[in-house]
């Protein structure tokens, strides 16, 4: 996968106990590998998240999906267009609201997601290779709990705005 994990429990430097540094290193490594795994998928990692939701039938509508993933509705339209063109999802009329469209995975989309999930599982195994199965499960559970709590308290309506806000705030505080 291109990421080597040292076989040591000693932090490599004085930042080893810093949560920001730790999360940053893990995030960069995961994102780099996830980008490689999803390179052929329309929308890359974001396209995989959409496909995952479509396969699991939650949320079903395009607007609910955009809200859950923090994607601008117009951007979501383009992402879905690309996924539809690739034969991975379909838009179907919502029988309970004719103004709404349900996002449904195709059989091809389900097969593609199975393959992506297998490959991303290998990425996770590689990145978390220094942990045993129980530790991996606990880490996933803890991270999911923290992420769910944070998202409930401060949901993301548009990830593009979050990135812009972080960049503007950072540039104002640290212009170097």
UniProtKB/TrEMBL annotation:
Q: InterPro entries recorded for this chain?
A: ArsR-like_HTH, HTH_MarR-typ, MarR/SlyA-like, WH-like_DNA-bd_sf, WH_DNA-bd_sf
Q: Name one GO molecular function term.
A: DNA-binding transcription factor activity
Query: Residue ranges of the HTH marR-type domain?
Result: 16-148
Keywords, ordered alphabetically: DNA-binding, Transcription, Transcription regulation
Which Gene Ontology BP terms does the record give?
Answer: response to stress
Q: Does the keyword Transcription apply?
A: yes
- Known CDD domains for this protein? HTH_ARSR
**Matching PROSITE patterns, A to Z?**
HTH_MARR_2
The record's section on PANTHER family has: TRANSCRIPTIONAL REGULATOR SLYA, TRANSCRIPTIONAL REGULATOR, MARR FAMILY
Q: What is this protein called?
A: DNA-binding MarR family transcriptional regulator
């Amino acid at each position: 996968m291109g990421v080597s994990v040292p076989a040591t429990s000693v932090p490599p430097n004085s930042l080893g106990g810093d949560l920001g540094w730790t999360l940053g290193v893990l995030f960069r490594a995961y994102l780099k590998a996830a980008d490689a795994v999803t390179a052929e998928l329309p929308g890359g990692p974001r396209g995989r998240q959409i496909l995952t939701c479509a396969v699991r039938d939650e949320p079903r509508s395009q607007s609910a999906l955009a809200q859950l993933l923090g994607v601008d509705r117009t951007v979501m339209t383009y992402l879905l267009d690309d996924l539809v063109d690739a034969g991975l999802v379909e838009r179907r009329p919502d029988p309970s609201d004719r103004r709404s469209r349900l996002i449904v995975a195709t059989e091809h989309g389900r097969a593609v997601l199975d393959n992506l999930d297998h490959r991303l599982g290998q990425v996770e195994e590689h990145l978390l290779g220094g942990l045993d199965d129980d530790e991996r499960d606990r880490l996933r559970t803890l991270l999911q709990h923290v992420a769910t709590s944070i998202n409930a308290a401060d949901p993301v309506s548009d990830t593009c705005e979050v990135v812009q806000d972080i960049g503007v705030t950072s540039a104002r505080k640290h212009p170097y």
